[in-house]
Structure formats: C-alpha cells, structure tokens
Protein 1
Amino acid sequence: MEHESYGIQVNGNSVHHVNRSLYQAKMKIREPKWNIKASEMSRKTFNPIRAIVDSMNVEPNPSKNMIALSIGDPTIFGNLPTDDNVLQAMKEAIDSKKCNGYAPAIGYQKSREAVSNFYSCPEAPLAAKDVILTSGCSQAIELAIAVLCNPGQNILVPRPGFSLYKTLAVSMGIDVKLYNLLPEKSWEIDLKHLESLIDDKTCCIIVNNPSNPCGSVFSKSHIQKIIAVASRHCTPILADEIYAEMVFSGCKYTSVASLSTDVPILSCGGLAKRWLVPGWRMGWILIHDRKNVFGNEIREGLVKLSQRILGPCTIVQGALEAIINKTPQEFYDNTISFLKSNSDICYTALSTVAGLRPIKPSGAMYLMVGINMEHFPEFESDVDFTEKLIAEQSVFCLPATCFEYPNFFRIVVTVSEDMMLEACTRIKEFCEQHYHLHTDSIIQDIECDK
C-alpha cells in the first residue's frame, strides 16, 4: 500500500516530507477526550436503606389508605408539632437581623455556651470550648468519625444499628465491624462479642443510646461495662445520643460521658428529635476529655473539619439559647407520653399475633418486631414480607435488613393513635392470612398425643 506524504516548510527554508498516516496517528493519540468519572469516595458511598427501599417495586393496595411506619421524621403526620416557644425563638432571631451573616465555623460563642450549660453536669462538666455546632446530628457523626479515624482503620458499630455509620465510614475508606445487640436482653450489647472485635486498628466504638432502630435504653450498669471494655483497650467512644432523655416512665437515661472517668467521649446530639425539628439541621458534638487524652490535636482537628462548610444555619444558632432555655418541661413530657402510649398499643397488639415477636421498647420512637420466618414459608426474607405487607395492606414498615438484622422489621411510633391501631389491625390480618404452622411443630404435637 502506497503511503501519502506531504511537505512542511520550516522557518521559510527547507521542506520536510512527512508520512501523512503516521502524522495523523500521532495526532489522534494526543487528541484530548472527555473522560470524567465519579470520585472513589462517591463510588464507595452506599445507603442500604435507600438501596433496599428503592428496589421495592410494589404498589400499595388502592382500596386502603397508605400508613407509613417507616420514616423516622416525627413531623411528617402533623400530629407532633414543636413547642410555640421554639417557633417564637426562631421568629425573634429573624427579626433581630443579627443572624444573617457568616458565623464562626464551630458556631456562635453564645450558642455554644447555651448548649454547654444545658448539658453540663458535675460528673461531666462542659464549657463552650467543648461544643462544636454542626449541620444536624448526621454531620456531627461524620465529623467525629473523620477526626478519629484514618483509611484502613476500623470502627465498631451496633447490629442492628443506624445505617449512616457504615455509609459514612466506608466512603472514607474506614472498615466497619458489627457487634451484636441481644434482643432477648432488651437489645443490650453482647460485650464479649464487642471486645473480641477490637484490634490495633480500631479507632472508636460507636454507642447509640437510646437506640435507633431498637427503641432500647441502656441501664447505668450496662453503660459502665461498655466503658470498661473501651478503657481496657484505650479506645474512644463516639456516643450517638440524639435521643437523649427520650425515655419512657420507669426508665432513666444516663449519658455515657457522665460515667466515664478516663475514656474520652465525643457525644453527638441535636434539636431534631427531642425538639421535633429535624429539618432545621442543628446538631452538636460535646467533647468530654477529662484526662486530656484527646489533647489539642482532636479539638483542632474538629475545628479544621468544621471549616469545610462553615457551620449550621445562623438563624437557628441565633435562636438556640432561647429554644433550649424556654422550652417547657411539659412539652417534653407530652411528647414522651404520646410515644409511650403508641409503643404500648403496638407492642400489646402485635404480641398476640402468631409468628411475630415484638421487643418492648423503653424510649426513642421505634419498636423492632421479629418475624418467625418458618411460619411464613411463602416469603423469602423480611424484605419480601414487608413488600407484600405494602401490596396487600398498604402498611409500610422498614425491613431490618436495612440495619444489618434480617427477619425483623422496624415500626416508627409517631403516627396518630388511630393510625397506629389501624396499622396493627392490618398487620394482624396480614399475618393471619399467611401464617402456616411449622411442620416440625405438627409432628411434635402428634407424638405428644400418642
């Protein structure tokens, strides 16, 4: 094959003959092309709840109104409004016209003082310097993990547990080890299992109390045992305490930090649940470091990480002192009374349903229900069970596979009392229609009759 060539005049003098095909090949190699790919961090970010819920291709029963017991937003049904004093504080912050500019990345000094004064106690004293304001409790957890852990290290996370811990950690290249909670012990931590997971790469233990998704509340003695494990291995605790004080009558809430004498604690909390304003995105980290184990390095690290987005909404910050100090105890009590009443209704109703095993909650806004899958052979999993429950009864409960705990489902108890009663009736009807006595049980009954 004959190759074309052409001449190129250089500096107005001699002519160089260039092989056209070779020249075009080289030019083709050098030609830039669009090649934009998502970052490694974004590819590693995975929300199991979204993945499972989005994959549930099911339509509710058109003859029945949908009852969603799946969403952890207490405001969604309109029956749990925040207190009028909370709204008034926001109005005054806006009208003051003093909260429209940038605040320090870690929050206004006055707002941090309000939080530290509210949570400080003799056993775990706090000052404004110990408070980092964040964009919701979720960001507080993100910053706490980011300041304590490096890629290749690991964190210990409860199972069942809030899925965000794993979502955040894995996206940062941090490994996740799941320690078991024990349903037969009201979801206490399996302390032996917890301790067996700790190694030289463990950077923190996440403790969620009161619990999402379990609705459990740890006793003082159990928290002391958790701290003892952390102390033996010199491992800090990240305490997710967004449901602090949201415990039912007859039960007492104890913060992790109030019992620790040597283990440093980063306690994450916020306005979302107790004040019923999750959309306002106001959270905080409380730094408890009685023995100065964190030193300046962790504190400075939290400040630097906070500077990436310049902190939470300044209007909410401006209202924070009044929100915390002027919300009446009656508001908190009424919220807890409502949640306990609904929890009792749900637990009592479902305890009588063959094939289900609800675990009685002690706080927060959730209740976990076990499914004896051998009695529901037509369903492959808790996901399949809850999917069919939507299709037939228009009741949406979150399958506990979302929380790394199959064969359970979670119920949110923030709906109205009427809706809770109706949902329980429908769940009972669904189970009665699909329940099958296990073959082994039948054989045992026959043998007993002989």
Protein 2
Amino acid sequence: QRHVAFLFRCSLSLSALRFRGSQIAFPERPLLSSALAMEHVQSQSAFRRCRAFLCRLFATLKLFILLAVQLQVLKFVNVFGCSDFWGSHARRPGKEAAALSGASEWENTERELRKRRFLEEYREEYGYPDGPLSIDELRATEFTRLNGTVYLDHAGSTLYSNSQIHATLADLSTTLYGNPHSQSSSSRKSADAVATARQEVLNFFNAPAGEYRCIFTSGATAALKLVGETFPWSSNSNYLYTMENHNSVLGIREYALAKGATVAAVDVEQFVYGAFCDNSSGQPRIFNLRTPQKRKLETVNDEEDGSVYNLFSFPLECNFSGEKFDLEMVKWVQDGKHVNDLRGRWMVLLDAAKGCGTSPLDLSRYSVDFVTISFYKIFGYPTGLGALLVRNDVVEILRKRYFGGGTVAVSIADRDFMQRRGSVEQWLEDGTVSFLNIASLPHGFAAVRQLGVSAIGKHTGSLTRFTASMLASLRHSNGCHVCTVYGKHNSSLQCVLAIINTAELLGGKV
C-alpha cells in the first residue's frame, strides 16, 4: 500500500509538470544574430524531447499503478477465499463448495467418496455388471450426446443408443423400401420388414406361437383408442379400471358409456407384488368399487345373440407412483372372481407402455387379452409408433367399422360394398403403416437384448432409489422436508419412477 501511495504521488507531480510545461512560451523579440536564433531553436527542440520523455514515463508509471492495484485485489481475493472476483461463483467452505463451479481438489475427492459409497450399495444392480461394456464405456460410446448431462427421465422417454441409430441409417441407406400395399420388389421388401418386426415384438413378450396378433398403431394411446372403438359394448357390459391408470385408459369409458355400459373405478392400491391375496382365505385384501356410472340411452343396441363382454383395465406399472401390479390378477379377473352376480365374459386390458421397458412381460405365463405398448418407451427410437397385442380368440369379437387405405381389398364408391383383406392386422390398421419406422424396430430390440431387460430394470431401479433417498434427505433450515417423494423405493421389485413435490421454506408447494 505504501508503494502504491508513492507511485500515485509521483504521477500527480508528473501531471503537474506536464501541464506547466505545455504553458511555457518564449517572448517574441527581434533576433540579434543567426547564432542566437539557432540557440533558440535548439532549446525549444530539447524542451519538446524532454516533455515527450516525461509523458512516456508518466504512462509507464500509470501502468505500474494499475498493476499494483490489481495485485492488491488479488491479495484480497486470496485472503477472503473468492475464486473469481469478477463475476463467477464464490468459493465457500464446507459442502456448499460442491454445488458451485470449479473442479477443486476437495470437490473431486468428495465426489469420489460419494461414488464409492453408491457403488458399494448398488454394485450388483448399477451399470450392467454382466454386460459387454461398463457404464462409463457405454456413456462414452453409445450415449456421447449426454456430454455430462444427468438424464433421469427414463420413464418419459428412453435414450436410444448410437449403434442403434447407425444400424438404422445403414439399413435405410442400402435397402429400397416401398409402400407395402403396392406390387413391386421394393414393396415386398417393406412387407417382409413389417412381418419380421411383428414377430420381433411377439418374441420380446414371449407370446406363444399362433396365439397373439401384433397390430401397429401410432402409439400406446392409439392402441387404447382402438380397443375402445372396437370392443363389443352393450347395455349389460361393465368397464372397470384401477384408480392408478393413464388418462388414455380413462378415455375408453366414453365409448362404454355411449353404449349404455356401466363404468366404475376400482381401488386396488394393495395389489402389488406379494400382496395380492391373503394366505388364509385366498381372497384379495382390497378390491373396492367406487361409485358406478351409467348413462340412460333412448335406444339400446345389444348383441343379437345376447352375449355380454366386460373389460377390466390396469397398468403394468403405475405412471404416477411406479408401483407394479401383481399379474396374477389377470387370471383372477378373467375367471370373474373379482365380482358377484355380474354375467358375461371378462377380458383384461394391460397398459404396458410404462413398465415393459424395465420389466419383461411373459405372455406365455399371463394370457392377457389386450396389451398396449409404445416403442420409444422401450428403446428410444422411433417415436410415434406403438402396437396392440391381441389374443386370436379375442380378435373375432372386435367390431371395426371404419376402413381406409390398404385395409380393404375392394371397395365400390356407388355401392354399399367392400371386402376386407384377409390379414387381421391389415384390417385393424388404418391405411399404410409407418413401414420405415417399423423397419427400424429390430435394431432397437437388438440394442435391448445386448443389455437385457432385467439388467435395464435393475440399473434404472438403483438410480431411482438413490435419487429418491437423496431427495428425501434434503431439509430446509427449519427442518422441513424440501421434497415429498411418492411411491415405494425400498424394494428392487418396485418403482423405477420417482415423483416429487418441492416445498418452499414456509411449507408451501412449488
């Protein structure tokens, strides 16, 4: 500080000298001789050189003053522990430093310790330990676009791998696919690709040979809508669905109510793994019907043969809480054990869009009547493509009225005549299917097989439980929870989904 003060006083003296020097003027008087004139010119020139030298010296001293001031600032920064005085985040002692920018030695050490504790707890589930590549190698080769991003929306949309996209691009770049409803070599390639993809889907769900059909749709919602449109509703039909269901499942009730059917929600919150039945009676612990709904219709169009068909719908995994339902409920509902004095045949609709990406569904063990899926939930790409899996003995009762595109073999404009195609899949699919996206499905299934669905479920489950525990441990300064976490995250069979609410300091919800 003393040096800075001295340099500052020197700069003031030089400034004054510069000002006074600029005011010096020589009086005009007649020159007595050429010698005196020469001496006068030389003196003026010397003065100008001196003044220029002093100006440069002043500029140099000014620069030194600025450097000295900056050195004092840096000394202040080091004393008070600020990492960047000019606008970046401040460095603070303790755990707050880990949340701020900068890769300090303390931060790296803390991160390694937390990672080691995490791996000790989840080493058998996290990172695909039996896979061909480690989790770090997978991120570096298959998911390079993450680039340090923490992606926790696996339930919303699974990430596609680089090799999957490269294989799809190579396939589309080397194979000429045409409209599968045309008659050409390229159209036959598309038809073969669609048939191969259908079989891939059925194999993925271990469907018994010849017992199921795969109908491609624009997504799981379109598949659910197709069930609602074609199901043989009547005034004696019943549509039951669990309280934990997607909006697209609830929308089916509009078709049922329009036909005079009875609709009711069912509370089956305890129908999860290991909690379906009591050991003594074999009866369900909780199966409560909410208030039934029914519309009065002026005209009723029931089945001519008096057949009554009922539908029960539940998800493979709850979209909100992540709880998984016991699939033993399928057979129990189909046998009509869940209701009393309700006639007709009961069928089960399983919304597997959320759960099948992490929990394999075995249709050889659980003979579900309808299964709806969405492929981007399984392997990320393509989007806008789903499927409806239907048992063959159920296809016969579906009532499809609309036809369009390649769903019919012949139609006449001025006559009430049309002839459907022989394939059930083409009859239920409206128009030309998305054959290019369908051709990419085998590459997605190959990527899933490389890791294994069970391993994917364990990996995502470990991340969910870790994230839920960390969020649940956060506290405000007054001791209140920062987050409210829904669902059960203490079991490897439960929940690869965490839903949270964040609370303000005074307790309000954000």
